[in-house]
Write a structure and sequence with these properties.
Blueprint: E1 10-13, H1 20-30, E2 37-40, H2 52-55, H3 58-61, E3 67-69, H4 75-78, H5 81-89, E4 92-95, H6 100-107, H7 111-121, E5 125-129, H8 131-134, E6 137-139, E7 163-170, H9 181-187, E8 192-196, E9 200-205, E10 208-213, E11 217-220, E12 227-229, E13 234-236, E14 241-243
Parallel strand pairs: 1-5, 2-3, 2-4, 4-5, 6-7, 7-8
Antiparallel strand pairs: 1-9, 8-11, 9-10, 10-13, 11-12, 13-14
Helix pairs in contact: 5-7
Length: about 240
């Protein structure tokens, strides 16, 4: 197994309506609601986006106003210094929902991806919901452009890896997906599977995460029965076990 690098400052949400406790956790890691935050809507299907997408985010609804929109579908644009300038000034980045392969196609291997990792390394926070959750794992679940029912799609299996050695799924119980990650961790034994239901998030600080929100998070490992964590529970990513 590849050694786990301890990630700081991640908020990984399972989609649906996100309560203020999740957004507050993101703000706390960013340095407050008025911290400079970049919103990336690229998982969505539109070719371009305007300011309305910023106002549709749960961040805006909870008081964030220092928001900057960053979006492209062109990896060459994503690889430029000018495009990534807002990321270097940001304390947080938020990925909206949609389809995770669009994020991978636009940003993997570019300066944008490197700047995102640099933001986490300097103590910033990366957050996201639905597709914006799955992209944060190292393995890209449901990455097939053909449809989101395909769990493992050759050529679309790499996420950004902010949380190494993980495969992250979302809309877990709402869409009846609680058994799906079993196949992924059986195929890739080094992975820790994390399934997150709607209205729920894991907040990663150092080598642990805690569950916040209203529903459940499921944990998957090869050869073991999956089990659920509830809001308030904590999990040690290195030891791979629930902790007090």
């Amino acid at each position: 197994m590849t050694p786990l690098l301890l990630a700081f400052g991640l908020v990984i949400a399972g989609g649906g309506a996100l309560g203020p406790e999740i957004v507050t956790a993101f703000f706390d890691l960013a340095g407050g609601a008025q911290a400079p935050i970049v919103v990336v809507p690229t998982a969505g299907e539109e070719a371009s986006y305007g300011g309305a997408v910023l106002e549709s985010t749960p961040l805006y609804k909870e008081g964030a106003r220092n928001l900057t929109l960053v979006h492209t579908r062109d990896p060459q644009v994503a690889d430029t210094e000018a495009f990534t300038a807002p990321l270097r000034a940001a304390r947080g980045v938020w990925f909206t929902g949609g389809r995770q392969w669009r994020l991978a196609d636009a940003y993997l291997g570019t300066r944008t991806e490197r700047e995102l990792h640099a933001l986490v390394a300097r103590g910033g926070v990366v957050g996201g919901t639905s597709a914006g959750a799955t992209i944060q794992g190292s393995y890209l679940v449901r990455g097939a452009p053909e449809g989101n029912t395909i769990l493992m799609a050759k050529g679309h299996e790499r996420g950004f890896g902010f949380l190494p050695n993980t495969a992250i799924d979302q809309h877990l119980l709402k869409r009846g997906r609680e058994k799906d990650l079993v196949a992924v961790v059986e195929a890739y034994p080094e992975l820790l599977g994390i399934g997150i239901d709607e209205g729920t998030a894991v907040v990663v600080e150092g080598g642990r995460f805690r569950v916040v929100g209203v529903s459940k998070v499921a944990i998957y490992e090869k050869g073991k029965a999956y089990y659920f964590l509830s809001p308030g529970d904590a999990f040690d990513l290195k030891a791979r076990r629930r902790v007090e």
